[in-house]
Every structure is written in C-alpha cells, then in structure tokens.
Amino acid sequence: MRYRLLGRTGLRVSEAFLGTMTFGEEWGWGASAEECRKMFTAYAEAGGNVIDTANRYTEGSSERIVGELLGAERDRFVLSTKYTLTMDGTDPNAAGNHRKNLARSVEASLRRLGTDYIDLLWVHIWDPNTPIEETMRALDDLVRAGKVLYVGISDAPAWLISRANTIAEFRGWTPFAGLQLPYSLVKRDIERELLPMAEALELSVAAWSPLAGGVLSGKFTRPGADGPSRVDRGTVSERDLEIARTVDAVADELGVSSSQVAIAWTRAHHPSIHPILGARNLAQLTDNLSAIDLALPEDAVARLDEAGAIDLGFPMEFILDTTTDFVYGPSGKRVDGRRSQWR
C-alpha cells in the first residue's frame, strides 16, 4: 500500500483507511474482539496505517478494542476518532459541536483508547446550533494543547466547510485537513459541490460506505449471496440494483469480486479519495484490501460512470453546459481550462 499526504499537511496516510464501526458486538452485527484482531493484523500487514473509529461506535467498545489492538505500536498508526454524537441522551450538552461537548468527548475517547493524543479528530456531523467559530477555536485549543494533532469534518455542507477553513486561515487557527463523506456508485451527491470544493482547497476525502451498505458487494444481485446486512432488501431501489448488476458484470469480466470493483471505482478519478474499508470478518476485509491494487480499465470506468450517473443540477450544469458558447464564444472550445475532474 502506498501513502499520500493528508490535505495540505505533511502527515502520511495510507491509500485506504480501516473503518471500525463493526468492532464490537453491541449493535448486533459487529465482530468479536478476536475477529477484530485478525482484521487489524491483516490491514497492518498490508501497509495500512489509519485506524478510523468514533466515540459512539458500538457504544464505546470500538474505541476500547482499537486501543487494545494498538498497544505498544500506537505511535506507528494514525489514530482517527470522532466527536459530536451523544453518549448520554438525557443530557442536552452531551451532544453537538460546542466546546463543552468537545472537551468531554475527547477526554473520554482518550481514556477508552488508552492514549494521550489523537492523531486526527473529526467533527462527526454538522451541528447547526453551534457557531462554526466556536468549534474551530475549540479544536485549535486542543491542537495547541497537544491532545489532537490534525482535524477534519464529516457530513457537512460545502459552504460551511469553506467558511470554517477561511475563518481558520485568517485567524491563525488549525484548519480542516480532510473530509469524511459517503461516496459510492449509488450515492454520488458529493460530486455536485463537496468534491470540487475538496479539490480546490486541497482536502483529502475519506469515503465511507463505498459498498453502499453492501448493495454493491453482490449481496442482493448474485445467486446464493446472503448474510447479515444493515440494509433492508426492501429499501433498495431498482436503480441501485441495476448499478450493482453493472458492477457484477465488470467484476466477472475482470475476474475479481464485485466489492473490489466498487471500491476501486471510488479511487478511479482522483488519488485524494481514501476508501474506508469496514468489514465484519477477515475474509471480507482481505477481499476489500485487494481493491487497492486494482486499476480499472478506462472502458470499465466509463461503463460504471454511466450506470451510476447523476444530474449535477444548478448551478454546475448551467455553468458547464448551457452557457458555454454564449459566454466564451466559439474560441472557448479551444481553451484547455480547469473543468472539474468530477464531471
């Protein structure tokens, strides 16, 4: 596995992150501690160095298991966790992105992880009730205190992230170095605003659910495929099933698994996307790790792009297509410009 720089920082992070939402059995579909150790070992042996967890994953068990697995090797890994989600639904201040919850959440995460610092702390989701200035200043305080080294944000609109990093830049605070966003062939919404913004601001993107909850693994489209799933078969649209069938067809032609094709596609257009590999067992993770070395042929990428195509909507479609001749004239077609790679 190769390494890339996280955003505009000097931190080296592996091409794929290990997701640990499945570490722990409290939610009914996770992995035992023994299976978690097998997956952690396989990921580390493949060269992976980013372990991604969150305070709420399996009600705290994920962080505890991750801390135990890291042990004396903790400094060799980029330990990534999140805050925002409540750990006490009876307390209104036990959730959100305000300073009090941040301080409490980080201290609790440090105890569960058995460490004195977090490499990468993510804001788990946008909290509209907390001013972004408060969040950015509080995050910067933790960086200055040495409890957190880098910060990122998950599941937030592009305008907010742009505003947050602009504020941080002008005030000398720590900016977000990366984004954590859902991205797969069946969920490409972030191509409209978030991915072009990430490219412009040089932010790394950690793509969660690259298999769309298992829909793109062949679970619902291949004969005999079954097993536990967080996705109810009845909620999967015919459009998504058609995309999954295209993934299956490409996989069969290449002699690889559907999961490998779906994961490889997330990286086909830009190297700054790091798929988060989450699995329930060693076999699943081993299969997913093989996607990192899979380079999809151009014609396969084009077929997959077409199968999962979405409308960019206004204003991007209007800007990129309908106004071209009117704005730039015939000579505009002879200019090699900066058209988004996400198009």
UniProtKB/TrEMBL annotation:
Query: Which residue ranges traverse the bilayer?
Result: none
Q: What name has this protein been given in UniProt?
A: Aldo/keto reductase
**Keyword Ribosomal protein on entry:** no
One Gene Ontology term, aspect cellular component: cytosol
In terms of SUPFAM superfamilies, this protein maps to: NAD(P)-linked oxidoreductase
- Alphabetical keyword list: Oxidoreductase
Q: Which residues form the NADP-dependent oxidoreductase domain?
A: 18-307
Against InterPro entries, the record matches this protein to: AKR_Detox_Biosynth, NAD(P)_OxRdtase_dom_sf, NADP_OxRdtase_dom
Q: Which GO terms describe its molecular function?
A: oxidoreductase activity
